Amino acid sequence: MPSLDYSRAAELTDKLEHSLVDSLGEDFKTTRRAVLGGVGLAGSAALTGIGRGSDDHGGSGGDSHGNFGAVGEYRDVDFDPHEYLYQFNTGRGEQENVPQRKYKENGRTVREFEFRAVDTTISIAPGIEFPAWAYNGQVPGPTIRAVEGDLIRVKFENLGRHAHTIHPHLRNLNPEMDGIPQNGPGVLNTGESFTYEWIAQPAGSHFYHCHSLPLKEHIHRGLYGAIIIDPDPERVAEQPEEYCNFHRSQITEQLRTELVAEAKSRNHEYQENDAINEMVMVMNGFDTNFDGDNEVYAANTRAFAYGVGQTDGSGNWKAGETKRPIQLDKTKRHRVYLVNAIEFDPINSFHTHSQFFDYYDHGTTLTPTLQTVDTVMQCQAQRGIIELDYSNHDPGLYMFHAHQSEFAELGWMSFFEVV
Amino acid sequence: MSKPNTDGGTTVNRTERPLGLPKWVAALLPILLLGLIAGGFFAATPFASLDTGGEPLPDVTVTHTTLPNDETVVVHVTNNGPNEVTISQVLVAEAYWNFDVQGAGGDNTLAPRESAQVVVPYHWNPGWDLEVALMLSDGSTVHHTIVAPSQSPGLTGDLLLTMAVIGLFVGVIPVALGMLWFPFLQSMSDRWLHAILAFSAGILAFLAIDAGFEAFELGEQVPGAFEGTALVALGIIGALLAVQSVSAWRKGRAAAGDSRAQSGLWIAYLVALGIGLHNLAEGLAIGSSFALGRVSLGAFLVIGFMLHNVTEGPAVVAPVARGERPSIAHFIGLGVLAGAPVILGGWLGSLAFSPTLGAFFLAVGVGAILQVIWELRGMISRNGQAASALNLVTFLVGLVVMYVTDLFVAL
Fold it and tell me: Closest Cα of chain B to A65: distance in Å?
């Protein structure tokens, strides 16, 4: 299980604070004092701040209108959304709670994983426990990553109280491997197991989930995760038209070279991929009182997990122990594999502040399907790839969130900290 | 007179106890045995096989909310359930908001039957409904809508004075005005005086019905742990029996030859007490409507109750219309007893309103009124016939008059 390391979090907090103090320089103290007596900052706190006002406010200033955001820190450290961001399972044993191996079989690369459905309890907001059904005890489930054409073999065992399956959103040629009640092994009852085999195709940012009935509940309880299929540059070189919106006749040598370069940057087995900071974000929500409406929204399960701990709304902020922004190295290119696993709401969205990005719908193309946008919309199970560049931006906090205000205020509200 | 321990001749020696146990042992023995049996049940857990392991659902009631200023919302909550509950997050208008739980021993956890205030710094808009939801640690939510929020007055000398003045105008003055009918009542024949007494019984009957329904309605808002309906029933029956015992005591005194106890003044005081208890509840209604920020409702209540209470004056003084005119001090005493509780109720209502308190006071008022009606019936039937045509008609008129003046309150 990934676990949160408090000392590491404290270190990061310290580092962030120092970089902040450095960036503010000598003005820091006076700014702070001016802020403490300020009256007009309440509005700006509401606009830019999440979390609570700083302690020494004593209820004045920013607190006069109150601040939104979940109160308190996460005490359950079984799952760390920061670790989840970067946790890809390619068969090399990346994640302890996901037994896996990679080997060749009939000339084809096989990536084998062991999945277990279990009933568990997860923290979705500070102090709020949700009775979840989860693959390998985590929500979202483990991220599987393979290269186009590989065989993904998932040995699945159901240890939960209810019957479950795994349904992959892949181009799957064998109906028995579709993971639905009406086909193949059907639903797997408690104690039953089955080995799913899927060819990794097409390249893109994909999704898997349980397809047992009632569907809404089996998905929203936590049985879902991301599958990332990296494009094979050799295949891209041979059939470039499958990775862009051009006919074969329109493919120039230059375009072919560009597509192959992009494919290499997407493929974890190529060195070009190392230069890119890749993250997985599964947008999800939780209906805690079972009324068919979500009380908690998040990217990667935990409300406000990528928020700041405290802020006075004037640039003075602190990372919390468990709630802190995602740090971005401004010299790098950033890629978000975005998956919408929301239930009970038809759409979700992703919006960046002060930044526009390129978007690849479903991630199945190597040329953007949307260019220079700051908001994308995804319906249920839709996903895509977002490519971000903060190299021109000043260091500091840049917000991103669902632009359904309701979702944002109920937890799907986050920050990048550009350093 | 026969002795208690005889059955009319044969002396039975009842002092013999088995094994010569002392008296106090005999008194305690059943309790001791009961304790052993009850303890045995706990120890042996005979119902363990019936336990399906189902967790009882958390049961938290929002009794009421107060808005001390335009940037604070205070939600008053009570844990009704058998288990402790933890308020982990608070949603205001479907957004996570910061909050502070006060009165629960420094944490966010409420023991069974414990009450606390959830203080939320939130800049609300007057008149715009505000939805607050408490999220418990298991994810269940307790929703409460603050309808048309407006600021509730805090505890100030101004407020106390305002409530006293309102109470004076709502309670004391109308009752005093009504009592000015006294000379007119004195000049009446027995027949018509009885009719007037029946009229006041009608007035009281309507008040009892009205307040009774209101008590049960308010009882529904009482946190489940306090058994609102049972509390109201207890209040009604308890007050009825308490006032009845005072009345019976008076009758005993009268039978023993106490002349003062024979006069109508006692009944007048009883009527005043019953109306006073009812008016206490009126005061609570006014005070709490101000406390809950419903100032316009409070103003309506003031006007309505004022009209309403004028008719209570003759009801108070009718019993003393025969015989010697009591001293002016008695009139003042009657007026204050019947009217001044509005002031007390206003203070209680605006400072410490809770549905539990409100329902209980209303119920007590109903019980007292019911007893007074019984008393008036006895008074009429002593010198005439209670169920005469005239009396029945005036009783009905009393009901109708109250109904009509009640419309002003309900407006």
Answer: 5
Cross-chain residue pair B96–A125, CB shorter than 8 Å: yes
The residue in chain A having the minimum alpha-carbon distance to the alpha carbon of residue B109 is A127
CB nearest to B96's CB, from A63, A289, A411: A411
Q: How far apart are CA A180 and CA A49, in angstroms?
A: 44
Chain B touched by A39 (CB under 8 Å): no
| Alpha carbons A375 and A403: distance in angstroms, whole number | 8
Distance CA B155, CA B149 (A): 19
CB pairs under 8 A between A and B: 88
The mean per-residue pLDDT over the stretch B8-22 comes to 64
Contact call for residues A389 and A334 (beta carbons, < 8 A):
yes
Nearest CA in chain B to A68: B97
- pLDDT at residue B138 above 50? yes
Q: Are strands A310-311 and A357-361 parallel, antiparallel or unpaired?
A: unpaired
- Chain B CB contacts of A59 below 8 Å: 121
CA distance B182 to B172: 16
Region class of B117: left (phi > 0), else alpha (psi between -120 and 50), else beta: beta
Integer Cα distance of A266 and B237 in angstroms: 80
Cα–Cα distance measured from residue A295 to residue A411, given in angstroms and rounded to the nearest whole number: 9
What ipTM, to 2 d.p.? 0.73
Find all residues with CB under 8 Å of B19, minimum gap 6, and list them: none
Give the Cα separation of B200 and B373 in Å (integer).
9
- H/E segment holding residue B99: none
Predicted model pTM = 0.73
B6 touching A, CB under 8 A? no
